[in-house]
Design a protein that fits this description.
Chain lengths: 385, 154
């Protein structure tokens, strides 16, 4: 038996703040989950069939951290699985569980307590390949983003100011988003005249970190319609991993082939043949400015080598042909560690709900997330009203 | 970059993750790479068809084994991409910017070596030729740091 469709029926969140000293990470998980369950009147102890959590030992500062997952979600002695990956991968897993027909309502949670991590750069450092990259002990382990950005610029002819335009767009978009702690009025001069941090990237083009917990409830079609009049349907999913720095021999610099692979899979499932003309908006990876432009090309929302040109012409503005990161993206909201993908899909879901009464809207969005430097791993989800 | 981290107003309970000591196995291809670097002025790559993969991969993209071949470090290499690091992740400015680059022995290679380039920021560019500055052979340890840095070829 397979469920015909999978819908998002509720979301709860807590945080969206640079620090959350008032709660432990488990209390954050409880807060977001309780809000998601309460919004639709679901008892997690009886009505949620499985729990999927995206978290990683190093981010938590606890080994075998999966053992901490069930209790704050209401998942003790229930089917709970923890995935060390971006939140979108958990959404994909929940989608698959429901599609089997054996699970009807599945909770997905991911969180970031980045403010607890006293030596964040050391965790990024230890994620680098121990033979070929880490022994260099570069002063900033995010330096790989600079190599990627430069390779992208070389390939496409994009210039520094194109990358800066991404930051200008997203930092300003976030001004209308109450969850965007890092939104700020910004113009192009502010960015291009600031000093680079990881050349060619300035501090405006590198997303800071944020504390947040997000819980989603997904359900099969019949149940989804029981709990809400407006489920957001997951029309297609895809996920892919290239390699990390452990096998950089495989990597094409300045590209995100894993996103292309994931997008092809998601579009195939959703029956989308012309992605550039299929969506009302896109919420995509932008923890570094260049990443948004690369992602748009890999998602086939812009032809090869044209994303920066379309950006400059205003196509991706909030009132443009295809608004990209109208929420403000990670540059405005912050990087939420493994919850970053859930932030993207949260923002897309809320925007789709707000478009319910807009007649001319297709009511369809694409969401893409990357696990960040130094990974080459991510997911894509197609959503519709 | 450090503005996200605010001082907590609640009591702090510091901890330390005891993961700083670990013994990594480089594997057959890794051992060959570092042995070659230590004993010769060269590294090894995996040749799959006409394409060289650096560092050497265990398998080719088609899951075949490929051939391990030596690639000299005595010839000029090229800068395929580069970055200049001015600040650490906590927002502290570096006394001296670090230039890191993706370096390849020929322009259409897949992969490459990531390493430092000794140059001034205004001198660096994609496509420039560089040469490896190796440690004296008696001081080499079979590590990537046996290459001290790459320097621009005049």
């Amino acid at each position: 038996m397979t469920s015909s469709r999978v819908g998002i029926i509720s979301i709860g969140w807590y945080g969206f703040s640079p620090s959350t000293p008032e709660v432990s990470f488990r209390e954050m998980m409880f807060e977001s989950s309780n809000r998601a369950y309460s919004a639709v009147g679901i008892d997690p102890r009886k009505e949620v069939d499985a729990f999927v959590v995206c978290q990683e030992d190093y981010w938590e500062g606890i080994a075998i951290t999966n053992e901490f997952a069930p209790e704050p979600l209401g998942g003790v002695l229930r089917p709970t699985v923890t995935i060390a990956g971006d939140g979108l991968q958990c959404i994909v897993t929940a989608y698959q569980l429901i599609k089997t027909g054996y699970f009807d309502i599945v909770a997905v949670e991911a969180h970031s307590k980045a403010s607890n991590i006293a030596t964040l750069s050391k965790i990024y450092e230890i994620a680098l390949d121990p033979h070929y990259v880490r022994p260099l002990y570069a002063k900033n382990p995010l330096f790989l983003a600079g190599l990627e950005a430069r390779a992208y610029m070389e390939r496409t002819g994009a210039e520094k100011y194109h990358l800066a335009l991404v930051a200008v767009k997203n930092k300003n978009n976030g001004l209308n988003n109450p969850r965007a702690s890092y939104a700020t009025p910004l113009d192009l001069e502010d960015v291009v005249e600031s000093k680079p941090v990881i050349d060619p990237l300035t501090s405006y083009e590198i997303a800071p970190f944020v504390d947040v917990s997000i819980t989603f409830l997904l359900a099969g079609e019949e149940s989804a319609r029981k709990f809400t009049d407006t489920p957001i349907w997951i029309e297609g999913v895809g996920w892919s991993t290239e390699t990390g720095t452990g096998a950089i021999a495989w990597h094409e610099w300045g590209r995100m082939r894993f996103l292309r692979d994931a997008a092809n899979q998601a579009y195939r499932i959703a029956g989308i043949s012309n992605p550039a003309r299929s969506f009302d908006f896109a919420e995509v990876e932008d923890r570094f400015s260049y990443a948004e432009l690369v992602a748009l090309e890999e998602l086939k929302l812009a032809q090869e080598g044209t994303a920066h040109i379309l950006l400059e012409s205003g196509d991706f503005d909030i009132d443009g042909y295809l608004p990209v990161n109208p929420s403000g993206g990670s540059l405005s909201i912050g990087v939420a560690l493994e919850a970053t993908g859930l932030v993207r899909i949260l923002e897309a879901t809320l925007r789709l709900w707000s478009m319910e009464l807009v007649e001319e809207a297709e009511g369809r969005a694409v969401v893409a997330s990357w696990r960040g430097i130094p990974s080459f791993s991510g997911g894509v989800v197609v959503l519709s009203l | 970059m450090s503005m996200w981290r605010k001082k907590c107003t609640t009591p702090e309970y510091p901890g330390k993750m005891e993961t700083e000591k670990y013994v990594y196995t480089p594997g057959l291809h890794g051992l060959e790479f570092f042995k070659t670097l230590k004993e010769k002025d060269a590294i090894v790559a995996t040749k799959c068809g006409e394409t060289l993969y650096i560092p050497p991969t265990t398998l080719c993209p088609d899951f075949s084994k490929g051939e391990v071949v030596e690639v000299p470090l005595t010839n000029p290499w090229y800068i395929a991409s580069y970055t200049i690091v001015y600040e650490d992740m906590d927002g502290n400015k570096l006394d001296k910017p670090q230039i890191l680059a993706l370096l390849v022995p020929e322009e259409d290679i897949v992969g490459g070596i990531i390493h430092y380039v000794k140059a001034e920021p205004e001198e660096i560019d994609v496509g420039l030729m560089v040469k490896a500055k190796l440690k004296p052979r008696e001081k080499r340890e079979g590590k990537i740091t046996d290459i001290e840095y790459f320097e621009l070829v005049a």
